[in-house]
């Protein structure tokens, strides 16, 4: 067996048993990165030398009996997490060459637990996108391809497209992502892997480049639900440096993957049956419900009457927060500066931001600036915050009837570069099933569950109560067992 | 509500993003497309609804307060390390006061 074929859990066991060393495991992944990254463009920065050094240090720790829970596990880190001494770009030209002098809390916890970082994964610029095509460092190729059109360049989804592609192509055993409107769950579904956005507050946002602070959450990608559970345990936990991080214990999420779903009540939101939804998505959803029913769960119809307003609500709240968060990129303290010899300070700001930000980021900053501007605040931003409260209330009412909710992860399989790109709103519709969880602060897990007629992966999504990721993992693992998803992308290490 | 070109220019100026004259029409079209789409929120009855201002789900403990004391500092070199231009322990910008 090639070392890149391990699941993360399998690699943890193999390292413990001494079947493989961290150095051998990391070398196999570094070689996979070297072989595949030129085609996939999944990593913006490759830190091969640091990875090999970290792997040797990991083997030494194990020898001393100091192995952590992720000891020697090679991961890809979304290039939105600040990593001390390693360039962090957020997929933007405005941060090209930015070397953080500090480490994000999530990545420092992964390091604390022994993980090895292979490099920084590509993403939509400032995590704004659903295709990875807004990255200033080029798009990422999805390692899957269409059966009848193998040359079409499919997107991996976004914004965490590089993370998802790297895990699917077996360049890394797992990866970090962030999810503001679906940026973990949609690329996980497009790339045939698992990914979870935990409850808002479960992971610290300290050191993660901010997009929309009331929606952003970090979470892991893995090739199995259990792999996500193992990673999330290391990533999660209270951090005094993030006032919104939750001061509550972190459960053993991996143990929850083995829980039975017998007797659980699974909600089916009737509003998620949408006109024009592809038949294969509807079919997979029904199949998922059948699997859970066979495993002993009870299926309950529920209503989320305001869910249809989630996307327009998101496209007020997120740009508003982004316009405020991204005000810091001013060409003065860090990042790119663009100025003419006779530029005054204001001209320096305006030239720097026009040249440093890509079109989608500029668009969202301007929408956010407008909805927050005097005279329009009540009509747009305040209104959106009230609709957001109604969306959250719909879920609270649902939790009195059900323990978890099952929905599709995305309205389609991966699309090709160039599709969905003429109209920004068309691209935004990709997040129709995922964005509600961000607005309500809930955990959501995407699980690969089937293939479309073109042989592309499709995902199901499990939503849960706040801080009840354990039930989400239990339901996700039950779906995974029933689906027995074994299809593999054409482009992968060892293939 | 539809933005005219003067409003598009004003929003770009507020956002401190330079907008070239030839870009105005395209940006106006894109922004109006998005604003037209989010207009549907006006149909939702939100009478008496308290706005949700953060991401923390209701019923979860509010943000904690900490003592108002200095917890960090004395790292000028680190803070300046990524500056495009600096002098001594200061960020440099074009002259703002004559």
TrEMBL record, chain A:
Taxonomy, superkingdom: Bacteria
User: Which reaction(s) does its UniProt entry say it catalyses?
Assistant: L-glutamyl-tRNA(Gln) + L-glutamine + ATP + H2O = L-glutaminyl-tRNA(Gln) + L-glutamate + ADP + phosphate + H(+)
* Residues forming the catalytic site: 78 (charge relay system), 159 (charge relay system), 183 (acyl-ester intermediate)
SUPFAM superfamilies from the UniProt entry:
Amidase signature (AS) enzymes
The reply to whether Protein biosynthesis figures as a keyword in the UniProt entry is yes
Biological process (GO) annotations held by this record are: translation
Q: Which GO terms describe its cellular component?
A: glutamyl-tRNA(Gln) amidotransferase complex
EC nos: 6.3.5.7
What are the Amidase domain coordinates in residue numbering? Answer: 24-472
Cross-referenced InterPro entries:
Amidase (IPR000120), Amidase_CS (IPR020556), Amidase_dom (IPR023631), AS_sf (IPR036928), GatA (IPR004412)
For this protein, the record's Gene3D superfamilies field holds: Amidase signature (AS) domain
One Pfam family linked to the record: Amidase
Q: Does the keyword Protein biosynthesis apply?
A: yes
How does it associate, per the subunit comment?
Answer: Heterotrimer of A, B and C subunits.
The task this protein performs is described as: Allows the formation of correctly charged Gln-tRNA(Gln) through the transamidation of misacylated Glu-tRNA(Gln) in organisms which lack glutaminyl-tRNA synthetase. The reaction takes place in the presence of glutamine and ATP through an activated gamma-phospho-Glu-tRNA(Gln).
- From the Swiss-Prot or TrEMBL record, give the protein name: Glutamyl-tRNA(Gln) amidotransferase subunit A
| Organism whose genome encodes this protein | Neoroseomonas lacus
Q: Gene encoding this polypeptide?
A: gatA
TrEMBL record, chain B:
Annotated signal peptide: none
Q: Which family does it belong to?
A: Belongs to the GatC family.
Q: Which gene encodes it?
A: gatC
Q: How does it assemble?
A: Heterotrimer of A, B and C subunits.
Top enzyme class: ligase
Q: Ion transport among the record's keywords?
A: no
The organism's lineage is: Bacteria, Pseudomonadati, Pseudomonadota, Alphaproteobacteria, Acetobacterales
Q: Which InterPro entries match?
A: Asp/Glu-ADT_sf_sub_c, GatC
What is the purpose of this protein? Allows the formation of correctly charged Asn-tRNA(Asn) or Gln-tRNA(Gln) through the transamidation of misacylated Asp-tRNA(Asn) or Glu-tRNA(Gln) in organisms which lack either or both of asparaginyl-tRNA or glutaminyl-tRNA synthetases. The reaction takes place in the presence of glutamine and ATP through an activated phospho-Asp-tRNA(Asn) or phospho-Glu-tRNA(Gln).
Biological process, per Gene Ontology? glutaminyl-tRNAGln biosynthesis via transamidation; regulation of translational fidelity; translation
Enzyme Commission no: 6.3.5.-
Keyword Endoplasmic reticulum belongs to the record: no
GO MF annotation: an example: ATP binding
* Keyword annotations of the record: ATP-binding, Ligase, Nucleotide-binding, Protein biosynthesis
Q: Which reaction does it catalyse?
A: L-glutamyl-tRNA(Gln) + L-glutamine + ATP + H2O = L-glutaminyl-tRNA(Gln) + L-glutamate + ADP + phosphate + H(+); L-aspartyl-tRNA(Asn) + L-glutamine + ATP + H2O = L-asparaginyl-tRNA(Asn) + L-glutamate + ADP + phosphate + 2 H(+)
Listed Pfam families: GatC
Q: By its UniProt entry, which HAMAP family does this protein fall under?
A: GatC
Gene3D superfamilies given in the database record: Glu-tRNAGln amidotransferase C subunit, N-terminal domain (1.10.20.60)
Instruction: Tell me the protein's name.
Output: Aspartyl/glutamyl-tRNA(Asn/Gln) amidotransferase subunit C
């Amino acid at each position: 067996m090639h070392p890149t074929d391990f699941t993360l859990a399998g690699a943890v066991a193999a390292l413990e048993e001494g079947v493989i060393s961290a150095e051998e495991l990391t070398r196999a992944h570094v070689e996979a990165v070297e072989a595949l990254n030129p085609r996939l463009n999944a990593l913006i920065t490759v830190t091969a030398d640091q990875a090999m050094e970290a792997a040797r240090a990991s083997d030494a720790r194990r020898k001393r009996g100091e192995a952590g829970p992720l000891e020697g596990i090679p991961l890809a880190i979304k290039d939105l997490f600040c990593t001390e001494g390693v360039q962090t770009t957020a997929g933007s030209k405005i941060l090209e060459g930015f070397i953080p002098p500090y480490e994000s809390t999530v990545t420092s916890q992964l390091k604390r637990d022994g993980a090895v970082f292979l490099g920084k994964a590509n993403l939509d610029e400032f995590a704004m996108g659903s295709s990875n095509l807004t990255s200033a460092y080029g798009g990422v190729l999805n390692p899957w391809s269409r059966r009848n059109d193998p040359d079409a360049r499919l997107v991996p989804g976004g914004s965490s497209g590089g993370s998802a592609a790297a895990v699917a192509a077996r360049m890394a055993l797992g990866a970090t992502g962030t999810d503001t409107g679906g940026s973990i769950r949609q690329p996980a579904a497009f790339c045939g892997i698992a990914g979870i956005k935990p409850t808002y507050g479960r992971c610290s946002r300290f050191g993660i480049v901010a997009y929309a602070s009331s929606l952003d959450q970090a979470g892991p990608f893995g090739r199995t639900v259990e792999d996500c559970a193992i990673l999330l345990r290391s990533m999660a936990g209270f951090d005094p440096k993030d006032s919104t991080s939750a001061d509550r214990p972190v459960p053993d999420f991996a143990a929850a993957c083995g829980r039975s779903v017998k007797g659980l009540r699974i909600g089916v939101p009737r509003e998620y049956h949408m006109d024009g939804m592809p038949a294969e998505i509807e079919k997979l959803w029904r199949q998922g419900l059948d699997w859970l029913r066979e495993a002993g769960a009870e299926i309950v119809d529920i209503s989320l009457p305001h869910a249809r307003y989630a996307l327009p609500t998101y496209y007020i709240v997120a740009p508003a927060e982004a316009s405020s968060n991204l005000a810091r990129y001013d060409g003065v303290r860090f990042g790119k500066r663009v100025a003419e010899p006779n530029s005054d300070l204001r001209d320096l700001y305006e030239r720097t931001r026009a040249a440093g930000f890509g079109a989608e980021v500029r668009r969202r900053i301007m929408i956010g600036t407008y909805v927050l501007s005097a005279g329009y605040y009540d009509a747009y931003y305040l209104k959106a915050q009230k609709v957001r409260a109604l969306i959250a209330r719909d879920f609270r009412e649902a939790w009195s009837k059900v323990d978890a909710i099952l929905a599709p992860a995305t309205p389609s399989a991966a699309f090709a570069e160039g599709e969905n790109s003429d109209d920004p709103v068309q691209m935004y519709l990709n997040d129709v099933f995922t964005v509600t969880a961000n607005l309500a602060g809930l955990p959501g897990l995407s699980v690969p569950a089937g293939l479309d007629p073109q042989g592309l992966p499709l995902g199901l999504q499990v939503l849960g109560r706040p801080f009840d990721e354990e039930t989400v993992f239990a339901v996700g693992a039950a779906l995974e067992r029933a689906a027995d998803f074994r299809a593999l992308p054409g482009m992968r290490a060892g293939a | 509500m539809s933005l005219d070109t003067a409003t598009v220019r004003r929003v770009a100026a507020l956002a401190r993003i330079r907008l070239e004259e030839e870009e105005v029409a395209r940006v106006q079209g894109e922004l109006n497309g998005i604003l037209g789409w989010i207009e549907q929120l006006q149909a939702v009855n939100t009478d008496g609804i308290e706005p949700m201002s953060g991401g923390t789900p209701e019923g979860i403990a509010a943000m904690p307060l900490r003592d108002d004391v200095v917890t960090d500092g004395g790292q000028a070199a680190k803070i300046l390390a990524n500056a495009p231009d600096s002098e001594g322990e200061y960020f440099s910008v074009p002259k703002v006061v004559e």
